[in-house]
Amino acid sequence: MTGHDHSHDHSHDHSSELGEMDLRVRALESVLTQKGYIDPAALDALIDTYQTRIGPRNGARVVARAWVDQTFHDWLMADATAAIASLGYTGRQGEHMVAVANTDDQHHMVVCTLCSCYPWPVLGLPPTWYKSAPYRSRAVKDPRGVLADFGTTLPETTRIRVWDSTAEVRYLVIPQRPVGTEGWSEDELAALVSRDSMIGTRVVEAPSARSTT
Amino acid sequence: MTYTTHADLGGQPGFGPVTPEPEGELFHGAWEPRALALTLAMGATGSWNIDTSRAARETLPDYRDLSYYQIWLGALEQLMLQRGQVFADEIASGQMHHPAAPVARVLQAENVPAVLAKGSGTERPASAPARFAVGQAVRMHLGRVDHHTRLPAYVQGKRGTIEHIHGAHVFADANAQGLGEQPQWLYTVVFDEAELWGEGTPRQNLAVSVDAWESYLEPAA
């Protein structure tokens, strides 16, 4: 399809507007349903789960709790799976969790050079870049170059530690709490924490001004 | 048999910059969430394990030309074709032409939250004490492996240090080949950048770790 001049001749059959991949997936889903291997309603439930329930806001709550509660922080460092489960985040692709906390001296970054291993219960589905060849190839050799792609610059004196998740252990980066957030509530803090900061490609920036509510 | 993975990318040159994307951007096309859900739902039938599916993905001949969910979909089709669960004429037509091959279980919508929340942990009881201790120097296996493995090429033959012991875990290499779980001790092994990339590579003040099963390791002199 050329894309610009199709408006006059295309039919109103919706399938004509679907791409090759849409048709291929639809055909497969149809066959698997006919064969009784899958429940289409389960597909809807799976998609809804990762679009609305399980995503990086979960991880942001873990980070915010660790920032305000030293006991939780210590538990998280000692047994991340249990500490994270206490907030209700468990299961698929997060069965064995390790939390790694950034400091002035050390910055953590997580990659899976072999596929796309990622802590789903706390971060949801990985972004495209995390699964891409540029990130997977460069994160272990040129992490400062990767950080530059995200606009992140760290002092040369900060040691970078890259965790290549080659087995079933999943890593969550606990970014540094920015200055100027003293007295903030857990909810306010969680709102500051980006997905990328929990993978380690960004830091959590100091807020320019706190909302005066 | 010659096993070739196209997925072992650590340290390889020439892939260009990373393109960040906004946090809410999960899918790029209506088919992607369906492909994801199909893969998860078929995985839940118990017809194969996660290591078998990783092997199916990384050996797709056109791996590097495919988007990630295209890789997942291609591997899903392969796994089902190999098991006689679907046939090429069915994939092409979207119609069932052959009898179904029974699956162990079917994921029902009402069970999705519980199945996801439970996951499938890989830690198992150990049958022997751990061979290595935290702080010990080890050298990673070097040489061709003719099956799925989780030992990346960039650490093969390199000297590292045991940093953490994770308990005994299902051994991916064996599990991928259908040889059972054969659990082994799993270690985090950390490497200095000069050991991995040589003295000629500009220093980044960097250390890199991998998680490695015991049979990937030998004591370092």
UniProtKB/TrEMBL annotation, chain A:
Task: Tell me if Signal is a UniProt keyword of this record.
Answer: no
Q: Does the keyword Lyase apply?
A: yes
The residues covered by the Nitrile hydratase alpha/Thiocyanate hydrolase gamma domain are 20-201
Q: Which GO terms describe its molecular function?
A: nitrile hydratase activity; transition metal ion binding
The domain of life is: Bacteria
Q: Where does Fe(3+) bind?
A: 112, 115-117
Keywords for this entry? Iron, Lyase, Metal-binding
Look up the EC number in the record and give it: 4.2.1.84
Looking up Pfam families in the UniProt record yields:
NHase_alpha
Write out the catalysed reaction: an aliphatic primary amide = an aliphatic nitrile + H2O
The kind of enzyme this is, by top-level EC class, is lyase
The UniProt similarity line reads: Belongs to the nitrile hydratase subunit alpha family.
What name does the UniProt record give this protein?
Answer: nitrile hydratase
This chain's source organism reads Variovorax boronicumulans
From TrEMBL, chain B:
Q: Residue ranges of the Nitrile hydratase beta subunit-like N-terminal domain? A: 6-111
Q: Which Pfam family is one of this chain's hits? A: NHase_beta_C
Segments traversing the membrane: none
Q: MF terms per GO, please?
A: nitrile hydratase activity; transition metal ion binding
Q: Looking at the keywords, is Transferase present?
A: no
Q: What is the enzyme's main class? A: lyase
Disordered, as annotated region: 1-26
| UniProt entry keywords in alphabetical sequence | Lyase
Q: Which SUPFAM superfamilies match?
A: Electron transport accessory proteins
Nitrile hydratase beta subunit domain location:
123-219
- Give its E.C. classification number: 4.2.1.84
| The reaction(s) this protein catalyses | an aliphatic primary amide = an aliphatic nitrile + H2O
What does the UniProt function comment say about this protein? NHase catalyzes the hydration of various nitrile compounds to the corresponding amides.
Q: Which family does it belong to?
A: Belongs to the nitrile hydratase subunit beta family.
Name by which UniProt lists this protein: Nitrile hydratase subunit beta
Supply the source organism for this entry.
Variovorax boronicumulans
Q: Which gene encodes it?
A: nthB
